[in-house]
Each structure stands twice: as C-alpha cells, then as structure tokens.
C-alpha cells in the first residue's frame, strides 16, 4: 500500500474508533449526568414520568436536612479514618513483608486475598463475626475476660465496625502498591545509610517514607474517592443504615431517596454534592503530585 | 498490517455491540418464561357461575373469542401460584394465554413502573398497596359495570379505604396483622399453659419476665420477648389507645401525645426496666427460630417462614395484648396483599381479558384461600374467615379474629415505618434512649422523611373509627 493511502486508512480507523467511544460515553455518561443535573432542580420521579421544575428547592431541602448532614459527617469520618489506616497499615505491612526472606510471596498473597473477594460476601461474613450473642468477636473478647460489645447493634460502634471490615478488606491493596514502591528504592541509598550507621527506624523515616511519597498520594486519593462512595457495607451489614442513622452514608441516602422514597431530584442533589467533594480531592491530588 | 486493521475493526465492532447490549426496554431484558396454559377443547356444557355477592360467569366470552396473550409480571415467590391459576383460567377461556416474566422481589418495583411506561411492559402484574404512589397512575381502574361497588363492599373488607379519587384499582385478597408468636416448649418448661395467655400488657410483662433466661453475667440467653426488626409495634400501641397516627390534615405524623409516650414507655419498660428483651439480639423471627426468644411480635408472613425453614419448631400464636382488655378500639394495624394490577396501556382486548382475570381472582374462593395460606394472611373476604384452611392454621386463625378490630392506615410510604423503627424502636430498645427523647427525635426526623411524598392516610375510614378517642 502507498504510504499516503496507509496513513489515510489509519486515520480513518482511529477516527472511527474514537468516534464510537465518544458516542458511547456521550450516551451512557455525559447525557445521563446532564440529565441528572437538570433533575436536581426538579420534582423528579421517572416512575410516574414526573419532572416539574422547582428551582433550588431540592438543594435547600437536602442541605438543610438533618439526615443528610449526618450522612455527610459519617461519610467524611469513614473516608478519613479508613484511608488513614489504608495508608499506614499498608505501608507497615509492606515494610515488614519486604524485610522477610523466603515467606514474602506467601504473606503478600494472604494479605491480598481479601482484596479480590466480593465486598458483599465479606460484609455477610463480618455480620456473623460481629453478632453480639454468638459472633467470634465477642467470643474472643470473652476469652480474654472482656464484656461482649454490641458492634453493629450499638450506635457508637456500628460505623467503627464497618470501618474495621473495610480496612481488613482493603489493606492488601495498598500493601501491594507499597511493596512495588519499596522494590524501586535503590539499594545504594540503604548502603549509604548503613555506612552512616542508621538503624531500621531511621532508614524507614529518612529513606523509605520520602521515597514512597508519590505512592502514598496515589493510595490516599484513590482511597478517598472509593470510600466517599461507600454503600455495599451499609446495605449488607445494617438495617437501613441503623441503628438510628449511625451508619447512614451519602451514597446510601442517595439510594434511599431514589429507589425507596422516589425523590430522584433529592438523589441527584446528593450525587452532585459527592461529585463536588470528590472533585475537590482530585484537584488536591493533582496539585500535591506536581509539588512532589 | 492488513490483518492488524481487520482485527482492529473487529474489536471496534465487538466493543460497540457489547456497549449496546444493555439497551432495550426493561421488559425485554428478562427472557420471558413462556408458560402457555393448557387449552381444553371447547365445551358446550354451561359452567357454573360462582361468587358471593360479586359473581363470576365463566360462560361469558372474552375479547370476542379472539386469541389474547397477557404479559404477566410476577416476583419469583408468586410464580407457582399464578402459573397454576392462570392455567385454570385458560381452561375456562382457551383463547386467553399468559406469558410470564419473573422478577426478583427487590427488582419488581424498579422494573415494572419503568417498563409499563414504555408500553412494552406487563399487561397484568403482581401489585402491592405500598407502591400506589408510583403505580396507580399507570393502572386501569376496576370498571363499575364489571365490579359493582356495593357488591365488592359486601364481599370484601377495607374496600372504602382502597378507593382513590373515586376509583377502585384492586381489593385486598387477604389482610395481615401483628400477633404474638410463642414457643410452646419454652412455655411448657416454665410451667405455663394456654390459660396463661395474657390479654393485657401488664400480664404480658409478667409472663415475659418469667420466661427470660439470663447467664451469670446477666446477659440474656433466652429473651422473654423480642420485637427486634419489628419495632413498629409502636404503631399498634397507638391505635390500641384510640390515637390516630396522623393529624387532621391526614398527612402530618403525630408524636406529641400521652398515648405516644405510653406506647414508647411500654416498649422501654419491657426491654430495659423488666430486662425481658435485648436490642442486641438477632431479628425476632431468627431469635425465635433458634430458641433464643420465648415470645416475639411478628406479622403473619412469619408462619410460612417457620413452616418452610423450621418445621419442627413448636409454636403457637395469640392476639396482641392491649392496655385494657375490657375497652379497646383496636388491636393495631393491618395491611393487605391485593389483587393483580392491570395496565392502562394494554389494548382493549388485553384489558378486557386482564380485568376478567381480576374478577375471576376475586370470586374464586379456592384461589383466595390458597393465596392467604401461602402469604400468612387472614382472608379479606367476609365469607372465608371461618374456612377450615384458615381455622386450622394457628396464626391465620388469630389474625382472622383480630381483623375486624384492626386499622389500615392506607398506602403510607414505607419509610414512615422504617423511620419509626429507627428513631423510636431502635433508639429505645437498642440504645436505651429515654422514650420522651426518642419521640422528640422522631417528631423532627419522620416528617422530614415524608416531605414531598404524595399520600393521605385513610385510617379515619376504618370500621372502628367511631371508637377511637382521638376524633
């Protein structure tokens, strides 16, 4: 084939492929997002074909709603705590496993296994673990002489219980990233540290921690984005985000508003609030990455 | 190079096809499970007309004898029942056949309202009164000429309450209410007999205390009473005291009253003062099935749950105790499961056939009884309350006895009851919040949850309305 014809046919193929993908994203992402944004200004119930413009009423309702305020607080607390543990525990595990000799692969696999399991299945298992009357958690506490706890039934412990479940599932993910990051640190740095007489802790703070900073940013931001959208655990592990809204999160409330209360306009408002919060964190990530 | 191009184009086509795979109306996403009914040769023999006041004449030709196929959507739990009765119907009307689409219970109310609007959804579907808000706008009302309202009222309970804007869309096939299930083995071990069945809450509290078993650390091993996950018993306690749930505007929930406090206080006292219950126990039906609760408050559906999963469980049931057994307006709340819904978008022939099937359902006592026994309800049809199949089921028998002193609040949004559970029930029973404080929280949060929901309670249309102290 002549070079010009070759280039032209390549361009046609690229354009065609990109065009098709653009149509796909337009149809299944952009247009629905725009539609939902418009819906957030409407008394919107697609179940009965209702979409009556109400201006900022939905925004006033949701932002003034005690339940939504609680949901936002719960979501932010959950996100911060779980992400923090994801980073700290993941790093700790990675450093410890990295220092091992022949059992490295074994431990890496063991800690990564929960990551590949379904969150729904894990949530069901942890419901049984946290069962106040017969669950393993209270049996272990009892073994050490402690009093059984309410866990998911206690309004002060329900959200922490879900945090424990999520951290347990998630920590392997960050561990794997940190292990990769650790393997990229030049051994010459460790050798230089040895020459200077640095101990393990000094090496960690002076070499490993700074060298893992970009990995930390990545894990933090992906963790924040994912945890802001937490839903499965609340749905599977609690009775309607109880007890007493203790586990109510923004996305759960979005689901409730749309599919239980048929107030799709309110649900759209929640979606956009989450979107704005996520966008803010993404901007922070980009700026932090540039500085690093 | 050419090969690369071909592979690239193929990949694009496959991706495009894959991305379009999710398109299409909801109705077509499920493979219709075609269950053609058995057809019988035309019989010249006249069939018997049946029914009480409302009658069904099976000799009337449907849709001028032309073949009609009704697209019937039901949740999986109802597949067997409706497959059977649609077959029976088709024996009478061989020109009418049914094509079933089976949904999951959770998905039914997400798919049906969307599919029905697309005009390719069901012609006839399993209906529930909790979704009036989203389904009545799509439903065909029952025509007066085929369903004379006086005859319907003469046959069924609750008809007046089911009339919306002057139209009737369905009737209750059965009515369910909350009863007390009790474990007969635990009862016997404690030296109790049926003569000890309490009629009032004071006696109930004593029995519950007697049945409660605790370990050395004071933790409940067997609760005397468990109402976990059914904390909406508060609603029954309100009705028992003659108090409406909603104000005169029929939409604002009421929490500031001595009756509301009495009801919340009783729940608090049974669990926390008497120590007969624990909010950390599993749901009532689970705890009961595993012998961890001697008595539970649960609705009639639990009888089938126990029959299917715990056939050896030795239990009985009795009517909800009341504050004063010598004078009470109602036992509590009731709710029904209703006749099938008909789409208003179906063509005339399909509509005629569908409405005829509804009439068939309403007049066919065997069909109603089977429905009620399956669902754990007492018949809404007056003539069937004493049916042997009802009387021999302890839970159904008790429900039948309670029905005429039970109140249907109407198609109140589900989140009203789940919010009652949360802000009153769980607060008091799990977190041991003081009743007054729990009610204060409920007064703030429950109306917020009902904002923008289009409903009016029909509780004041109850047969016992005149006996309620709150007029």
Question: What's a quick, concise take on this entry?
Answer:
The complex is a heterodimer of chains A (292) and B (471). With 292 residues, chain A is mainly alpha-helical.
Give a verbal description of the structure.
The complex is a heterodimer of chains A (292) and B (471). With 292 residues, chain A is mostly helical. The mean pLDDT of chain A is 91. The longest helix of chain B has 19 residues. Chain B is α+β, with helices and mostly antiparallel strands. In chain B, the strands form four sheets. In chain B, strands 7, 10, 11, 12, 14 and 15 form a six-stranded mixed sheet that branches. In chain B, strands 1-5-4-6-13 form a five-stranded mixed sheet. In chain B, strands 2-3 form a two-stranded antiparallel sheet. The N and C termini of chain B lie far apart (86 Å). Classes of the chains: A mainly alpha (292), B alpha+beta (471). Chains A and B meet through helix 1 and helix 12 of A and helix 1, helix 4, helix 18 and helix 19 of B.
Q: Any key phrases for this structure?
A:
heterodimer; A: mainly alpha; two-stranded antiparallel ribbon; 13 helices; B: D-Maltodextrin-Binding Protein, domain 2; D-Maltodextrin-Binding Protein, domain 2; 2 domains; 5-stranded mixed β-sheet; 19 helices; 15 strands
How is the topology of this model organized?
The complex is a heterodimer of chains A (292) and B (471).
Chain A: H1 3-39, E1 42-45, E2 50-53, H2 57-64, H3 66-98, H4 104-116, H5 119-129, H6 136-143, H7 158-183, H8 187-195, H9 200-211, H10 213-228, H11 232-237, H12 250-260, H13 264-291
Antiparallel strand pairs in A: 1-2
Chain B: H1 2-20, H2 26-29, E1 33-34, E2 50-51, E3 55-56, E4 68-75, H3 79-92, E5 96-103, H4 105-117, E6 124-125, H5 132-135, H6 149-155, H7 159-162, E7 172-183, H8 184-189, H9 201-211, E8 213-214, E9 220-222, H10 233-240, H11 258-273, H12 284-289, E10 295-299, H13 301-309, E11 315-318, E12 332-338, E13 341-342, H14 348-363, H15 365-375, E14 378-379, H16 388-391, H17 394-402, E15 406-407, H18 414-429, H19 435-450
Parallel strand pairs in B: 4-5, 4-6, 12-15
Antiparallel strand pairs in B: 1-5, 2-3, 6-13, 7-10, 7-11, 7-12, 7-14, 8-9
Helix pairs in contact in B: 10-11, 11-18, 11-19, 18-19
């Amino acid at each position: 084939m002549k070079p010009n014809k070759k280039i032209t046919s390549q361009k046609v193929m690229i354009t065609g492929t990109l065009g098709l993908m653009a149509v796909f994203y337009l149809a299944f992402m952009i247009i629905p997002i725009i539609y939902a944004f418009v819906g957030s200004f409407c008394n919107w119930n697609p179940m009965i074909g209702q979409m009556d413009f109400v201006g900022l009423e939905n925004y006033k309702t949701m932002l003034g709603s005690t339940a939504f305020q609680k949901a936002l607080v719960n979501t932010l607390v959950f996100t911060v705590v779980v992400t923090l543990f994801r980073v700290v525990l993941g790093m700790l595990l990675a450093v410890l496993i990295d220092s091992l000799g022949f059992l490295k692969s074994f431990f890496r696999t063991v800690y990564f296994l929960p990551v590949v399991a379904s969150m729904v299945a894990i949530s069901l298992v942890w419901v049984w673990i946290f069962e106040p009357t017969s669950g393993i958690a209270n049996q272990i506490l009892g073994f050490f002489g402690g009093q059984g706890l309410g866990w998911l039934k206690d309004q002060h412990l329900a959200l922490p219980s879900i945090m424990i479940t999520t951290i347990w599932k998630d920590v392997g993910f960050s561990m794997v990233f940190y292990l990769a990051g650790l393997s990229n640190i030049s051994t010459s740095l460790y050798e230089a540290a040895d020459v200077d007489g640095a101990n393990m802790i000094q090496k960690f703070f002076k070499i490993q921690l700074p060298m893992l900073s970009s990995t930390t940013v990545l894990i933090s931001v992906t963790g924040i984005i994912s945890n802001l959208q937490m839903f499965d655990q609340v749905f599977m592990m609690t009775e309607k985000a109880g007890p007493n809204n203790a586990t109510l999160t923004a996305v759960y409330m979005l689901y409730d508003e749309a599919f239980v209360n048929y107030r799709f306009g309110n649900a759209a408002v929640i979606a956009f609030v989450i979107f704005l919060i996520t966008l803010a964190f993404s901007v922070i990530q980009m700026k932090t990455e540039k500085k690093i | 190079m050419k090969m690369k191009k071909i592979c690239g184009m193929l990949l694009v086509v496959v991706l495009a096809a894959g991305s379009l795979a999710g398109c299409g109306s909801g109705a077509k996403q499920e493979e219709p499970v075609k269950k053609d009914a058995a057809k019988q040769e035309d019989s010249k023999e006249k069939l018997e007309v049946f029914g009480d006041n409302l009658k069904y004449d099976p000799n009337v030709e449907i849709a001028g004898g032309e073949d009609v196929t009704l697209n019937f959507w039901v949740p999986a739990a109802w597949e067997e029942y409706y497959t059977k009765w649609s077959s029976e119907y088709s024996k009478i009307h061989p020109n009418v056949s049914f094509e079933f689409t089976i949904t999951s219970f959770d998905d039914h109310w997400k798919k049906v309202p969307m599919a029905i609007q697309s005009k390719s959804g069901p012609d006839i579907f399993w209906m529930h009164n909790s979704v009036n808000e989203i389904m009545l706008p799509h439903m065909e009302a029952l025509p007066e000429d085929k369903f004379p309202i006086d005859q319907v009222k003469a046959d069924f309970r609750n008809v007046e309450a089911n009339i919306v804007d002057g139209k009737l869309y369905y009737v209750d096939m059965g009515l369910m209410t909350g009863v007390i299930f009790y474990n007969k083995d635990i009862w016997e071990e404690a030296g109790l007999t049926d003569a000890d069945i309490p009629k009032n809450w004071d006696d109930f509290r004593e029995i519950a205390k007697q049945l409660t078993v605790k370990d050395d650390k004071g933790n409940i091993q067997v609760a005397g009473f468990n109402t976990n996950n059914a904390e909406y018993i508060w609603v029954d306690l309100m009705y028992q005291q003659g108090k409406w749930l909603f104000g005169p505007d029929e939409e604002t929930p009421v929490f500031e009253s001595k009756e509301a406090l009495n009801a919340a206080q009783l729940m608090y006292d049974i669990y926390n003062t008497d120590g007969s219950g624990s909010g950390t126990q599993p749901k009532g039906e689970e705890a009961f099935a595993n012998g961890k609760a001697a008595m539970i408050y649960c609705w009639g559906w639990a009888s089938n749950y126990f029959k299917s999963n715990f056939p050896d469980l030795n239990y009985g049931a009795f009517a909800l105790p009341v504050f004063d057994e010598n004078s009470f307006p109602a036992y509590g709340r009731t709710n029904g499961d209703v006749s099938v819904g008909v789409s208003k978008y179906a063509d005339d022939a399909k509509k005629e056939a569908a409405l005829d099937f509804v009439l068939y359902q309403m007049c066919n006592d065997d069909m109603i009884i089977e429905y009620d026994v399956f669902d754990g309800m007492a018949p809404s049809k007056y003539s069937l309350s004493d049916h042997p199949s009802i009387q021999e089921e302890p839970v159904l028998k008790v429900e039948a006895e309670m029905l005429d002193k039970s109140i249907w609040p109407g198609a109140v949004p589900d989140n009203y009851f789940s919010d009652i559970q949360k802000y009153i029930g769980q607060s008091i029973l799990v977190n041991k919040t003081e009743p007054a404080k729990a009610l204060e929280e409920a007064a703030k949060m429950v109306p917020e949850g009902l904002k923008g929901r289009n409903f009016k309670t029909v509780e004041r249309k109850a047969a016992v309305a005149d006996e309620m102290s709150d007029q």
